[in-house]
Amino acid sequence: MTSAPPKRILLKLSGEVLMGPGQFGIDPGTVHRLAEEVKAAKDTGLELCLVIGGGNIFRGMAGAAKGMDRANADYMGMLATVMNALAMQDALEQMGVATRVQSAIPMASVCEPYIRRRAERHLEKGRVVIFAAGTGNPYFTTDSGAALRAAEMRCDALYKGTSVDGVYDADPKKVASAKRFDRVSYDQVLSQNLKVMDASAVALCRDNAIPIIVFNIREQGNLARILAGDGVSTVVGPAA
């Protein structure tokens, strides 16, 4: 973990997590459970912002692989992240958590445009900020968007909630003997092409000294355990 308890973090959630037991779309029960974990983290005094992927609705690279124009496919994926952000905002606000959605693609009737200083003020006032639509540009993943926003918001760490409990030297779903790292360096992730985040996201975190904590968000209560220094995770940081 980081040397001191974090005061401001960015939580990156994969869109697939919002599917819950389904194969597509948004499962309200799962969103509610995730919102409870976000609220519990915020209630500890953390300043918290989120980025949620869109893979549960549409993934740009998958669309491009099937013949779609890559830029158009990526824009569709960005719009999917806005839908997920609004779903999470609704769940949080039903729990009394003040939440703002800021989109890198302006859509004034739906949410705020991304304005860095306004986002910082929201965080300072105790609001949860959900950043949607990635970077607003095609050819960039929501991982890159998360790393960018974490740097802009001067977050102490980026927590990536996925369906695995850390970073492995091979895909643990395919290789039974895959070994999990407790800690791994940014450069090792890049040189060995370990599947944590895309290379541009890892490099951006490295250049801004933002540790990446990878953990399993599907396990109920795991976010609180990881924030408390317990639980199973992998920390990506500078070389020891």
State the major sheet.
9 strands, mixed
Alpha carbon gap, first and last residue:
13 Å
Please state the CA-atom Rg, rounded to the nearest Å. 17 Å
What shape does the CA trace take?
Answer: globular
Q: Compute the number of helices.
A: 8
* Run of helices and strands: EHEHHEEHEHEEEEHHEHE
Label the CATH architecture.
3-Layer(aba) Sandwich
For the largest sheet, list the strands in their spatial order: 4-3-5-2-1-6-10-11-9
Number of individual domains:
1
- What is the CATH class name? Alpha Beta
* Subunit arrangement of the protein: single chain
Helicity, as a percent range: 25-40%
Mean pLDDT: 94
| Class of secondary structure makeup | alpha/beta
**Estimated share of beta-strand residues:** 15-25%
CATH superfamily: Acetylglutamate kinase-like
CATH topology: Carbamate kinase
User: Which stretches are low in confidence, meaning pLDDT under 50 for 5 or more residues running?
Assistant: none
Count the E strands. Answer: 11
